[in-house]
Amino acid sequence: MFINWGNDFSHLIIWRCVNISKEFQINEQIRDKEVRVIDQDDNQLGVMSGREAQRLADERELDLVKISPNAKPPVCRILDYGKFRYEQSRKEKEAKKKQKVINIKEIRMSANVQEHDLDVKAKNCRKFLENGDRVKASVRFRGREMSYTNVGKDLLLKFAEKVSDVGKMEKPPRLEGRSMVINLVPLKENN
User: Fold this and answer.
1) The Translation initiation factor 3 N-terminal domain covers which part of the protein (predicted)?
2) Any residues with CB less than 8 A from the CB of 180 and at least 6 apart, and which?
């Protein structure tokens, strides 16, 4: 038996090509009956029909942009759309510059680590803290070592003391499952 699918899947192809963006509706794309209008000087012109608002924007040789589509009635602003988009992109770039990525490096040890190994791990921790990263130092307990958590606590406090010139503990050592953990933060944040 042959089934004729015809153009049943064509709408899926079109749907996949639609690009969802954060663009604003401008000029003729605004089809609301009533809109609240604000001019380029931030003066409220009141509630008017969409056509009247469009005519007003055309008289001033500017664009009508729907700023808040979810408001009742929707809020539109009369402005230069090219300049508006430029300012929006600048604000987004400034916001991205101000964001700071916090990296957390992890250093793992066993409860019976030797002194030299502890010094090597402290040296690596010192590098991380000098670069401005946070460090999570953990001691893993295996088998019967769980009954000697005080050894791990002393080890972590000793470790924190070795790097105390470049970092400090956020909180005292705490038990997370079969590991005891401390978080170290740099003394001064690198900008």
Assistant:
1) 26-95
2) 138, 139, 141, 149, 152, 153, 156, 173, 174
